[in-house]
Design a protein that fits this description.
Tyrosyl-Transfer RNA Synthetase; 2 domains; binds tryptophan
């Protein structure tokens, strides 16, 4: 069976290092592994509109930001198909048919939808489009028959919902010859990468909280953010024993630091374990740890920042890449939609047998 990847992001802002360790870094590795037959990376503008009804301009502006972030981290249009969700009208058609296979109560139980409804104060009146976005996400994943979906952990309920839709579709409409493919989520293994906290120590990086380090931030911005990061409020003097639990600087080091970084930037320690040990014993100051983290993150972000600037010099070409990608994705979606309509018995004009049988019935 061929190996196909699909994943994507909502264009509601620039991408940050939480996106990077949670999914982007992995995508590039998978892309360059050469093990996948097809890789689709989608800018989910239609999904972004489901909870940005008042903000079409914001979504529109951020499409190019996300595309630049993709190219900057090393997603390569020669190897991966980069495309814009709204340009694939087949996706809305698939969504409409999948709606027959999902109940309202099942959507209400989707943990991601549940928490997002709370977050956005949608309790009193939920837009139908927002409520049903997990179904549209199933269309995103199935149009290209993706079997691997690299995502952050918060997306697991979406993949689960997609699996259920695929299972139901195949068992109702295509029991002998399955049409859709069940996807598997690929989430980061390291705990720190699953959900990188904000620089203020809050559980999630989010633009509205102003606690993100963006891939596009300048070296100075990154440095300022790191030097003012949340650490251990009980670690007042260098000699005090420090705590690692909830200590954002160490969580970031868990996500980013490798042994070679110590040799280069902090040879007092062979590895992160040694540094942690000294910190918890007392005698290692926050400033020293933050300076080390700054070196590590700058090293990772510098090439990304430079590539972003280079791609930014030819914006028409970026739109051209997205257009070509969207055309390619659309062809694949049209093929899957044809198979779906055939399985659902709504392919009247392609089904010669049907036309003949009906005419025999009426003439005979
Ligand atoms: N829901 C994802 C997010 O908020 C974006 C997304 C839309 C997606 N469709 C997808 C991710 C399909 C993976 C597969 O980040």
């Amino acid at each position: 069976m061929s190996k196909i990847i699909l994943t994507g992001d909502r264009p509601t802002g620039r991408l940050h290092i939480g996106h990077y360790v949670g999914s982007l870094r992995r995508r590039v590795e998978l892309q360059n592994s050469g093990e996948y037959d097809k890789i689709y990376i989608m800018i989910a503008d239609a999904q972004a509109l489901t909870d940005n009804i008042e903000n079409p301009e914001k979504v529109r502006q951020n499409v190019i930001e996300v595309a630049l972030d993709y190219l900057a981290v090393g997603l390569d249009p020669a190897k991966s198909t980069l495309f814009i969700q709204s340009q694939i009208s087949e996706l809305t058609e698939l969504t409409f048919y999948y709606m027959d296979l999902v109940t309202v109560s099942r959507l209400q139980r989707n943990p991601t939808v549940k928490s997002e409804i709370q977050l956005r104060n949608f309790e009193a009146s939920i837009p139908v489009g927002f409520f049903t976005y997990p179904i549209s996400q199933a269309a995103d994943i199935t149009f290209c028959k993706a079997n691997v979906v690299p995502v952050g952990e918060d997306q697991l309920p979406m993949i689960e919902q997609t699996k259920e839709i695929v299972h139901k579709f195949n068992s109702v409409y295509a029991p002998d010859n399955p049409v859709l493919v069940e996807p598997k989520a690929l989430v980061p293994e390291a705990e720190a990468c699953k959900r990188l906290p904000g620089t203020d120590g809050k559980a999630k990086m989010s633009k509205s909280l102003g606690n993100c380090i963006y891939l596009a931030d300048s070296a100075d911005e990154v440095r300022t953010k790191i030097m003012s990061m949340y650490t251990d409020p009980l670690h007042l003097q260098v000699s005090d024993p420090g705590h690692l639990e909830g200590n954002t600087v160490f969580t970031y080091l868990d996500a980013f630091a490798r042994e070679e970084h110590f040799a280069r930037y902090c040879p007092d320690y062979a590895n992160l374990d040694e540094m942690k040990e000294h910190y918890t014993k007392g005698g290692l100051g926050d400033v020293k740890v933050k300076k080390f983290l700054n070196h590590v993150i700058q090293e990772e972000l510098e090439p990304i920042r430079n590539r972003r600037a280079a791609f930014g010099k030819d914006i028409p070409e970026i739109y051209n890449i997205l257009k070509k990608g969207s055309e390619a994705a659309r062809e694949v979606a049209a093929q899957t939609l044809a198979e779906v309509k055939h399985a659902m018995k709504i392919d009247y004009f392609e089904d010669m047998e049907l036309i003949q049988a009906q005419s025999a019935r009426y003439q005979g």
